[in-house]
Amino acid sequence: MAMAGAGAASYFCGQAAATFSSGSGSCRSAAVIGRRNSFREVIFSSGNKHRMACAVLEAKRVPIPSIPSIEAPKEVSSGDGAIPGVPEQGSTVSITVVGASGDLAKKKIFPALFALFYEGCLPQHFTIFGYARSKMSDAELRAMISATLTCRIDKRENCSEKISQFLKRCFYQSGQYNSEDNFSELDKKLKDHEGGKVANRMFYLSVPPNVFIDVARCASRSASSSKGWTRVIVEKPFGRDSESSGELTSGLKEFLTEEQIYRIDHYLGKELVENLSILRFSNLVFEPLWSRQYIRNVQLIFSEDFGTEGRGGYFDNYGIIRDIMQNHLLQILALFAMEPPVSLDAEDIRNEKVKVLRSMRKLQLEDVVVGQYKSHIKGGVHYPGYTDDKTVPNNSLTPTFAAAALFVDNARWDGVPFLMKAGKALHNKLAEIRVQFRHVPGNLYKRSFGMDLDQATNELVIRVQPDEAVYLKINNKVPGLGMRLDRSNLNLLYSDRYSREIPDAYERLLLDAIEGERRLFIRSDELDAAWAIFTPLLKELEERKISPELYPYGSRGPVGAHYLAAKYNVRWGDMSSSEHSKS
Fold this sequence. Notes:
A 9-stranded mixed sheet has the order 19-18-17-16-10-15-14-11-21, with helices on both faces. A 7-stranded mixed sheet has the order 6-5-4-7-8-9-20, with helices on both faces. Helix 2 packs across helix 13 and helix 10 packs across helix 11. By secondary structure, it is α/β, with parallel strands linked by helices. The longest helix has 20 residues. Helices cover 32% and strands 24% of the residues.
């Protein structure tokens, strides 16, 4: 009986190994972790964890009757035609990039797909199609793609050979986004390349939101898989407010199920954002402190050191609040503030995020500062203002900067201000989370800090980009005979600690979508809750035509942002000129 159990274990692992024998790379390195009933789950990881359907019987197990021969376990559908874990044997994955001639496709999507191929993370049988209105041959698509492909990861060998192999899997179909006939032509070409295998199909909608529903209709009716799964990745923006977002969701759900829709926010694929829950839930030193009892405020900061640079036409229709705060920063806030989920299952995590969003107050105008950058001359160089952009109306009131104070009205976070700040044409490029802790009660050394009590508090900084790092500010005695205190950093700088280059966020999210892992994608009720927080504010700003405060290009932003922070007895943590040189 023991031998039968061992045989089963060998079979399961052998099948998993065989499935991914198409190449080499970290995507196939296995680590046995976790426990589920009398089985252990084997995790295949590529920086993040991707569950694959391989089970190893426990060493201590209940007796199992002897089995003459062990057959492969039957696979069970997971709703959208997916098999939990490993792709089916004899199956293929076809990835269609809709809007293939656009900047996002050229600069992000195709390079990310190539990086996954280079690392051996794509299935053995896969095909990539570009679809757009532009007339283009397969050769012209490959030439366009090849200009953006690099073997950036560790500068490994066989780069040219890998690029050539990848490009042979890339094809092009020209067509209109609202033409079912054109998508039927795509379907025929996909079938030719799928060669009778079970076809799994993924459509990446790298197109404007106004054609999302047309593409979903055509893909669903004319080019979806009849036997395997069909998934559609939708890029932000997901509407402009609650009403338009709801209409978009309803339109998509006419042709797709919620399980087929993958709403992508690439910031959720950032390494440090994904590390956020690990940092909190797997380190005892942090989890007990994660509440109003010890945390004074939380800051979510995003800044770019460039303006719209001729692309203001798109930006002017949305502004910085819709473009950055309502999605990127709010998603990070929800991950930061959520209660411990029941498990790492996608639905359990997203349930907790929705609870946070529904607990948040609707934003009030008095808790928001908006700004717009103006022209500035620095070092003899003239930097144009936002309205100097020829694609922007001269009288535009669209904010390029916003700061806001948000509150989560629940037992854990009652009264703790979550300060958001996002802007373009600022003094640096930065994205980080700052957790400022409360003062030590009855601090014996408070006289050593003079009147600046902020210098006496601890601060945890999670720098998302650039120079990814996690560091904790502590108080420390300067060596010597005197009693002089210093504020020092306990620093984990990723480039020093880890030799591997950090994968691009799109690589992680594309791989998750292929594997059916939905944890980092946004659910419809999550989207509804997010828009409910910001929509009243956005309507008030536009109806009252609130003029943004002007700030010089390359500055630290409007002065009003400092007054907003001071209103809650907070100082922005990124304001110190020596901040990043110390870290």
